[in-house]
Amino acid sequence: MSKTHLAPILPTLLAVLLLAGCHARVTGQSMGTTYTIEAECPHGIPAARVEQVLDRVNRLMSTYDPDSELSEFNRHPVGEAMAVSPETVEVVAAARRVAEQTAGAFDPTVAPLVALWGFGADAADHPPAEVERRAAVETVDYRRVEHRTAPPTLRKLAPVTLDLSAIAKGYAVDRLAEVLDESGCHAYLVELGGEIRATGTAPGGGAWRIGVDAPTGTGLVSTIVLASGGLATSGDYRQYREQHGVRLSHVVDPRTGHPIRHDLASVTVVHEQAMYADAYATALLVMGEDEGRRFAEDNGLAALFIVRRGQEFEVVDSSPMREYLR
Q: Which domains does the chain have, with CATH numbers?
């Protein structure tokens, strides 16, 4: 793996490097964040259809909406199958696949632990006692949710809370890409809360250039060239709280029940689908540098790791990521 040492910077954010051109642009807010679409379409960007897709994903999978399909499932009795949308089953199936592959580093039932540490829709207002943490760990297990596609149903095998927030935005980005494809768009870049899907030629020519940017404005950590596919970043800096002078990340390891406290600051993953890039970025961040790098290499994942080294940061990439770096 190649390495680059950097001067001290704040953990990275994604910035799209857009050149001047005739591409249409729409922006808005959805799913608790913002979105931007840059596209070249014969009849313009189908803005109304874009809003419909985002509204539907939010109605199905939001943990903040008590009337969403996901919230209804979380209230549903154990052992009783519940009819759900094909979209929800598709995302749950993908989440299950990543959870199995990562041996639970990614787990869509981690919500009770996240809430216990003061994050998410049901955030507690004080840090948990050890007995509370241990009890919450016992409620987290992706294998407790059974899904079927025909007909689309979900069933809890034991008490569990399903949360798709670490994969749903990526899924929404993939659905927006489908809308643009169906509308005959020749090139586009879709960004929703940092999750990205791109194809075709960027304004000014060439592939889309995605900058992994230092939020201090001191420059880019790296530039990823994306001709086609999805991209997502997960970082331990985006949400956190202080406890007795210790910074607690909103990213909780489902296997231990503790917020992550290693030196890995962020992970960026490139994958054919933004949904999987979203989930894998979270899983690799939970794993930490050594385990995450091994997993990326063993599974052919294009991943970029930003690692704290004292007062500096080091950029480490997996072998498959190198074809995207410039």
A: 3-324 (3.10.520.10)
